[in-house]
Design goal:
alpha+beta, 5-stranded mixed beta sheet, 1 helix, 5 strands, about 20% helix, globular
């Protein structure tokens, strides 16, 4: 089994009407309908990214930007 660790730059748009994810070569844009209050948007982003990367929620974490729309997300998974 191989451990894979990868970091991504993520731009979060809270309070969106439609939940979606758009990945370009150097960043990921995530629209969530949760508000940026009490970490609700962060939780929604982590769940959406876990589904996108097909990993468990506990394998994704926010390295930088807890309270910012620009975040660095780490995906730490075992293949």
């Amino acid at each position: 089994m191989e451990r894979v660790v990868k970091d991504y730059a993520v731009k979060v748009i809270p309070n969106a009407k439609i939940i979606r994810l758009e990945q370009s070569s150097n960043t990921i844009k995530v629209w969530v309908n949760s508000p940026a209050i009490n970490g609700k948007a962060n939780k929604a982003v982590l769940k959406l990214l876990a589904d996108h990367f097909k990993v468990k929620s506990r394998e994704i974490s926010i390295l930088k930007g807890e309270k910012s729309p620009m975040k660095i997300i780490r995906v730490d998974s075992v293949n």
